[in-house]
Amino acid sequence: MSANSFGSLDKLQVGDRSYDIYRLDAVEGSARLPYSLKVLLENLLRTEDGANVTADHIRALAQWDAKAKPSKEIQFTPARVIMQDFTGVPCVVDLATMREAVRDLGGDPTRINPLAPAEMVIDHSVIVDYFGSPDAFERNVQREYERNKERYQFLRWGQTAFDEFKVVPPGTGIVHQVNIEHLARVVFDRNGVAYPDTCVGTDSHTTMENGIGVLGWGVGGIEAEAAMLGQPISMLIPRVVGFKLTGEMPAGTTATDLVLTITEMLREHGVVGKFVEFYGEGVQALPLANRATIGNMSPEFGSTCAIFPIDDETLKYLRLTGRDDEQIALVEAYAKTQGLWLDPSVEPEFSEYMELDLATVVPSLAGPKRPQDRISLAEAKQTWRRDVLNYAESVQGGAADEASNESFPASDSPAISGDTAGDKPRQHGSNGSERPHNPVPVTLEDGTSFELDHGHVAVAAITSCTNTSNPYVMIGAALLAKNAVDKGLTRKPWVKTSLAPGSQVVTDYLERAGLTPYLDKIGFNLVGYGCTTCIGNTGPLQPEISKAVNDNDLAVTAVLSGNRNFEGRISPDVKMNYLASPPLVIAYALAGTMDIDILNDPIAEGADGPVRLADLWPAPEEVAAIVESSIGQEMFTESYADVFKGDDRWRNLDIPTGDLFEWDASSTYVRKAPYFDGMGAEPEPVADIHGARVLAKLGDSVTTDHISPAGSIKAGTPAARYLEDNGVAVKDFNSYGSRRGNHEVMIRGTFANIRLRNQLLDGVEGGYTRDFTQQDAPQAFIYDAAQNYAAQGTPLVVIAGKEYGSGSSRDWAAKGTALLGVRAVIAQSYERIHRSNLIGLGVLPLQFKDGESAESLGLTGTETFDITGVTALNEGGIPEEVTVKADGKEFTAVVRIDTPGEADYYRNGGILQYVLRNLLRK
Description:
Blueprint: E1 9-14, E2 17-22, H1 35-47, H2 55-62, E3 73-76, E4 80-84, H3 85-104, E5 118-121, H4 136-161, E6 165-168, H5 175-183, E7 187-190, E8 193-196, E9 199-201, H6 221-228, E10 233-236, E11 240-246, H7 255-269, E12 275-279, H8 281-284, H9 288-296, H10 298-301, E13 305-307, H11 312-320, H12 325-337, E14 352-357, E15 364-366, E16 374-376, H13 380-396, E17 440-443, E18 449-452, E19 457-462, H14 465-468, H15 471-486, E20 496-499, H16 504-512, H17 516-521, H18 543-551, E21 557-560, E22 576-579, H19 582-591, E23 604-606, E24 609-611, H20 613-616, H21 620-630, H22 633-639, H23 648-651, E25 689-697, H24 704-707, H25 718-725, H26 743-749, E26 768-770, E27 779-781, H27 782-792, E28 796-799, H28 812-819, E29 822-827, H29 832-840, E30 844-848, E31 864-868, E32 881-886, E33 889-895, H30 900-907, H31 911-921
Parallel strand pairs: 4-5, 4-9, 5-6, 11-12, 11-14, 12-13, 19-20, 19-21, 21-22, 25-28, 28-29, 29-30
Antiparallel strand pairs: 1-2, 3-10, 7-8, 15-16, 17-18, 23-24, 25-31, 26-27, 30-33, 31-32, 32-33
Helix pairs in contact: 1-2, 3-6, 7-9, 11-12, 15-19, 15-21, 25-26, 26-28, 28-29, 30-31
Organism: Actinomadura coerulea
EC number: 4.2.1.3
Catalytic activity: citrate = D-threo-isocitrate
């Protein structure tokens, strides 16, 4: 290693080992920076090369103006990349395709190879087909391999073909929990140099690692691929929000209650594009698991990261999870030497300040369709009733077409996805006192009979990385299950229950505590180690229940311990989804309905009379004692000893060999990507957009789930037709998420969410639009219309409201948009990752000026659009605005290409094309 402009290269002695480090105190001004910016500063010091990173970049960060609007661009080089399989498979497809493109352009294909560690955890593919039985786990895993054999063979090839690429096989755990329990280094030791572990991931909840002091966030798959190939991530030095924690959590509250409170506060404050950093005396009162829970939900409140500095609690967790003594000693010495150690008495300089007294946190839920819509548990019943009755009133009053099956608006929050209500909550007469009632008799195959009604809990799932990584809430849930069994309670027969922990360690400590039999007895049997219900892999409801729900338009609910509850995500049969702690998930499974005051009403009739929640809720002291006695370091060391090895099913997969992948023309899972077809060694000049038509006109809070759903493929849709034409039976359709290695499926699935509301149509939900290539512009599938536009050479645009592209980091939301022929999106605002992904695919993100919208400008979506001024990019700069003409209307839109690096990507038609051309030049 060589010294840089600041002479910061130094030695750090830890025990009998010596490490090279780049000292932060060699740079004037570094001491006042927040933790997160100190990590970025070290990154710049270490990667200074006079080109991508210069001394001026380093000075700009050291002299950071906390109050200024971000304007200084820097290049961040993450230490590693982490992936999950839904986003990871298309990454490997792209890398395999890039190898062929390099070969075709006369280069060496093996130069397409990760330059930094890249690790993938297969956790998104298991579906809860089987539940409530001792063999549910084994049967689900077997079905997973049957469905995904092609994908898994492809990933095993990738593991052998690419250096620095490792795969954690199915049935091991959820990527973010495996990351914090095993893969995260906190401080890296590579080639004798010690430096902070930084990691970007192809899943938005990569921020869970922020809980152990690792700076990183979710990026799109294409940006991750570029990072793997050594391309730094271009970013503006961000504003940093300091979030002070004081006090201690009251008894009876959980990490879930805390994170839902923080999510509500930060969404209201506005932190999109900002870092959030926690500090203060209250941080010391938070176990590491609670910090990880907060970091995990950073995407839900919109920040880039939500980080905690390193302290004794971090070291305690590293020790518990089996990191070796040498690594732990390095983390401590490095953090203290570099000023990265938490001092609760010091308040760093921040751009904005917020504060929460932990003692004010109360038991909570969030729903029915946004994680930021927190509901006090005491108000859950009346809020649910108000939401249902308000919806019914709007339908009966003609505000919505009864056939549209429109999802329920969140109380006290703006309508979404095609509703034009803006920021004003809908006003209706109900105060939540009326009881929505429509009992429907149901008899299951085994003869069990009951009445199903509005509000009945159809899905109760302990799922997701957010909570299943936290032993306090998991032990709490198991103790609640024990108390329920002791009182003679079990789940209601209409509830589909599931337990999907984030790692095998969870089941180990539940077994050691003797609590597994109680979970099994009330139906929470192990169904898999994966994301399951949180990403829509809920699996089907029992046929009799599904039929009753759909035939009678019942508003049944899901209660899950996840981080996402967007409409249409959890199950196509469930309209209202609530996020809750694992103990509350079990409580609602016992009650069987949301139409209950769960704090005061009896949950169920037990062997000795009515049972209330207070009779079941475990004391915090009991939970803490079992956590202390049941979790040991050996559980982690044993679980992760051969983490990349896998079981016999994984090891026995037949895999192809060679540096280039042999594509199977008949595969419906893995196909060569089209992004480099016809690509030349030099890019074509950027062109203005003329004669464009609107493919979709959308409202606020359109998520990446709306744009590119991950769940089931509906019969009769373009994606279903493609699969059927290729000999795939309906039972083998699998999910959109599992087929992301096949662009033919994914293009057809773009904008195909069953809850999407395109304002070009009246009262219609799903992947439809008006096809202006046809006389009278009839309703058509979005894919079919896009093909007709392509045949005519007509470019396309999408118009949207606020928070366009919120939710998952899903790069297919941008890939599908680009492959449909969309050249530009015009929105009121964007979520960070999706805006970046659009640029990475060569789609121009434009933004209405403040105070303007499609509605205020009178845009109906029926116009023909011309966008001029884009060609200014050919001159090396970035135009602030472009001119948009839509028939007789004209306005200017803000160009949301925010950095020179992003401009380079756009000029090249995308980030991968830019990286590939750079590799060839070298």
